[in-house]
From TrEMBL:
<dbReference type="InterPro" id="IPR018113">
    <property type="entry name" value="PTrfase_EIIB_Cys"/>
</dbReference>
<keyword id="KW-0812">Transmembrane</keyword>
<keyword id="KW-1133">Transmembrane helix</keyword>
<feature type="transmembrane region" description="Helical">
    <location>
        <begin position="331"/>
        <end position="355"/>
    </location>
</feature>
<dbReference type="GO" id="GO:0016301">
    <property type="term" value="F:kinase activity"/>
</dbReference>
<feature type="transmembrane region" description="Helical">
    <location>
        <begin position="362"/>
        <end position="379"/>
    </location>
</feature>
<feature type="transmembrane region" description="Helical">
    <location>
        <begin position="92"/>
        <end position="109"/>
    </location>
</feature>
<keyword id="KW-0813">Transport</keyword>
<protein>
    <submittedName>
        <fullName>PTS transporter subunit EIIC</fullName>
    </submittedName>
</protein>
<feature type="transmembrane region" description="Helical">
    <location>
        <begin position="168"/>
        <end position="188"/>
    </location>
</feature>
<dbReference type="InterPro" id="IPR003352">
    <property type="entry name" value="PTS_EIIC"/>
</dbReference>
<feature type="transmembrane region" description="Helical">
    <location>
        <begin position="385"/>
        <end position="408"/>
    </location>
</feature>
<keyword id="KW-0418">Kinase</keyword>
<feature type="domain" description="PTS EIIC type-1">
    <location>
        <begin position="4"/>
        <end position="420"/>
    </location>
</feature>
<dbReference type="GO" id="GO:0005886">
    <property type="term" value="C:plasma membrane"/>
</dbReference>
<dbReference type="InterPro" id="IPR050429">
    <property type="entry name" value="PTS_Glucose_EIICBA"/>
</dbReference>
<keyword id="KW-0762">Sugar transport</keyword>
Amino acid sequence: MTGKISFDFFQRVGRSMMAVVLILPLVSILMGLGGVLLNPSVQELVPFLAGNGWQVTGELMQRAGQAVFNNLPVLFAAAIAITWTGRGMAGFSALIAFVIMHTTIGALLDITGTQLNERMLGTELGIETMQTGVFGGIWVGFLTAYLYSKFHRVELPDAISLFSGERLVPIIASFGGILSAVILFFLWPQVGQGVLALGDFVATHTNPLIVGLYGGIEKLLIPFGLHHIYNTPLLFTEIGGTYTTLEGARIVGDQNVYISQVIDRLKDGSVDITGGQYIAGKFIPVMFGLPGAALAMYRVAQDRRKTKVKSLLIAAAVTALLTGITEPLEFTFLFVAPVLYGVHAVLTALAFGLMSALGMHAGFAGGSGLIDFILFNVLPHHSNAWLVTIGLGLIFAVIYYFTFRFLILRMNLKTPGREEEGEETKLYTKEEYRSKKGIVSAGKEHPEEKNNRASEILKALGGRENITRLDACISRLRVGVQDTNQVDEEKLKSLGASGVLKVSDGIQAVFGTKSSVLKEEIEELL
């Protein structure tokens, strides 16, 4: 496998996990609100919430949210198969393979009488089996996607032609599930013990230097779209720690453990918070650091361009502060002054390390912004971590401001508002910002305008013949192309992209949260 193919592969791996990752914030908020309704302290302040109706509502919200966390492995399996192939039949096949794999593992355990560590045993969809966790789901997802790509166009003899094409894939996936079960039955006990041991070590030997490196590296991987591969093991698997809820559910991953412990602590104040040790520092650069950087970029902009710059930077800074979505702001300086992004990564690492050194535990459901900060840190009030976050955050805001200001002036960096004479400051108009953020004014956009926009973007990408793959994440179009030289970067920017990054055999165009809509529009033209 060439380096180009390998890099492209890992980009697609990260994107394929987003379907599950993106649903977790909503689910966690559902659980959080349910926990608030069940919290005795809240009921004392608001007596009518003690009524049976509110208590039933809170319990239903919590159980509905917990169901998603309890079934993350099968969700990863189906989501990866579907997003990798773009076909629902692949997801259906993954579900079949997942069920058969765990049923077979359970049968092998019964037949052989194999004795395993209790932590290695559990249930998946009600099937008593060996705990392979999210790793098992990811394996099934990619295996099924591979099998789909190999067999979905196979034509069988006339006598059995009914099972040709896509109908053949679930059958092949069934055998894939059986084979996977046999392999995992012999290999996973050793691998699983290693994963559990690593998780125990991580939980009891948290090193601020390691935590800081984790945060810095994650930030450096964001421009390449590889951060989801990097952080998934820590956030969503046993490597990030394990926890058994008050209801007996087994939760894995630093982020998931933190959310579940916060919810349980609302019911039982004796529950210790051990999760959130690797992600506690994320609020600082997002809620405080980047707004400080935005202020610095505004202050050093040319006076005649400050009006144009201000609307973009204020809106992007507020977006980061409230929701934790940082890419719109980060990409305003990433492409014109990469050194600033490097400094941002270093300061992010420092924030992560400091919070770890202080023994703080904090977390979020999806975005590390003010909404999650209040819902999962301030309101539960399980410690003074949120106060420490605010204190350190204000210090980091000052550090970001003066560091960015000094570097921009000293190195004469062409940040927004400091472009050369005659260069268009095209990112800072209201309509371009609204397009980048995915906000459409009522009555301003018609179907024919949508088609025209998609058509123009397609032309800028080199036309249909140049497209090999089309994907989208939260803020970017990810496009595989035959020839990157045919991509018109300036045209894409004029159409609303805040940046264009050529990577391997593809490009990433930053259109903000409207990227997924643009993907659908372009797909209609392919």
